[in-house]
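User: Predict structure, ligand fructose -6-phosphate.
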Amino acid sequence: MCGIVAAVADRDIVPLLIEGLTRLEYRGYDSAGIAVRDESAKRALTRMCSTGRVADLAVQAQDCTAKAGIAHTRWATHGAPSERNTHPLMSSGVALVHNGIIENYIPIRQMLIAQGYVFVSETDTEVIAHLVHFELKCAADLLTAVRRACAQLVGAYGIAVIREGDDCVVVARRGSPLLLGLGEHGNYAASDASALLSVTRNIVYLEEGDVAEIKRQSVRIFSVGAGDTGRATDRECPEEGTPLVIGVDRPVHVSTLSAEAVELGDYQHYMQKEIFEQPEALAATLEMIGGAQSLMPNLFGANAPEVFTGINSVLILACGTSYHSGLVARYWIEQIAGIRCTVEIASEYRYRASVPDPNQLVIAISQSGETADTLASVKYAKSLGMQRTLAICNVPESAIVRECALRFLTRAGPEVGVASTKAFTTQLAALFLLAVTLAKASGRLSVADEAQYLTDLRHLPLAVQKVLTLEPQIASWALHFANKHHALFLGRGMHYPIALEGALKLKEISYIHAEGYPAGELKHGPLALVDADMPVITIAPNDALLEKLKSNLMEVAARGGELYVFADADSAVTEGDAVHVLRLAEHYGLLSPVLHVVALQLLSYHVALVKGTDVDKPRNLAKSVTVE
Ligand code: F6R
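Assistant: Predicted complex:
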């Protein structure tokens, strides 16, 4: 959730740290800070921080030059976003930044207080800074001290540490993403490759339990093992770890990420850019089926034919928007493939005494591939004996992808706006492909149906493009929402999850309280809320449930409710005084949820514009939830 950048080079790295933080700011924007070995202050450590945005930090740092430093943009867990809680946290000549949560920080803090350390922040992170300092008293170097400190931590961390007088930065990870960048003029570390694009594309992903020492001309990595969530050890006999060979034990990947992919271009916001990139993102995701008339299971990995054979049901694990894509997929998997499918919120599943089934296919859906709850839920399912796992993910080397036996990589490109848009629709495309593939594997699919599904999928980018042309009308609807405090989203069947997603989008970026309901449930409670002040947004595709849905709309109209209906061109829904109707160009059968959600994304975006909220960085949120 936080962003980390670190650098040791033969030139000034302050601009790189600031640029890297700017790129990572969407991952956490409560505060930002850097600690550098300041060339203008006899290479002493200088710490600068801002409780505002990275742009404020950039102003403070403009006169500073340094050849080594660490930087952080924070999403607060322990302690409010104040100056003293901002990273880096310091301990007499040691500075440290951290992403994650240390679960045993209280006993460590007590031990350190007994040793005379004084704590100035409310963070869990400060214990790591003092612990490293404490370990330095009897360690040969910073690397050893960090390894010894890490061996005592329970919880999740990605850290970067710098010490006054040293020529290195030491980084370590367990449970939070961290990678190294190998450059011509120096070596680097970051929580995401996009932060290092201007200096290198040669990336080494650290694994669980890795500790690395970064110098100007060398990088050393040691593995102290994956562990579970870390473990406390006797500090007299720490785990020193196994030295690893870069390029052998930890391969060097050449990042193909383009600078434009993470730049705003002509758009006002990343969310707007990402909504409009959906036709392209869908086309890229579907590129892997090419012109084929028939799907092969190995689209999901070389072992897919074995893994798919004999599965009796599907369990989908995910959070937030990704959970909603799972809910849509349930309709497809059951209807097209005839396979029972359950969808669980990962944070609930991981603590629930469920009944394991080794023949169940477990699917983890995640844009980032780093969501702590989703990752933990897959590990939990595996610990129960369920080894048939598939990741549907947008980030190739992410933890969830590495945890699963099979993978399908969506090609949405980097998603920077906190509200997920193109990741969602590309997940839907992947899940539709999966439903058709499973149907085929279970012998339920006719050649004609398979060809039709593939034709429909290929047409999807164009169909989404047509929905995007509705933006002006949707923007005019958004004006009606400026003074509203609540909104209800209704859908039926596979559009019910789209109602949930529409409500989530609206609440997260416009701060209007919104609920998604299956329209048939209205009279069982939520109808009590309906009045002229609560807009009711309805998804009304021309499907088998349309007539039922129209009865539900009557119930709203009869109680003075104002309806905003997203219908299809041929949905028989009539405009009226309090019934506004907007028509999508075509009814798109089973893939209709993909089109309707795009219209709802545009609605939320324009309501947020009208309300003047920070669209890409909504309050209290962050992208990529790497803490529990
Ligand atoms: C909402 C949103 C979140 C994420 C959720 C899971 O717009 O983006 O609800 O969908 O935090 O994230 P991933 O998909 O990265 O696992």
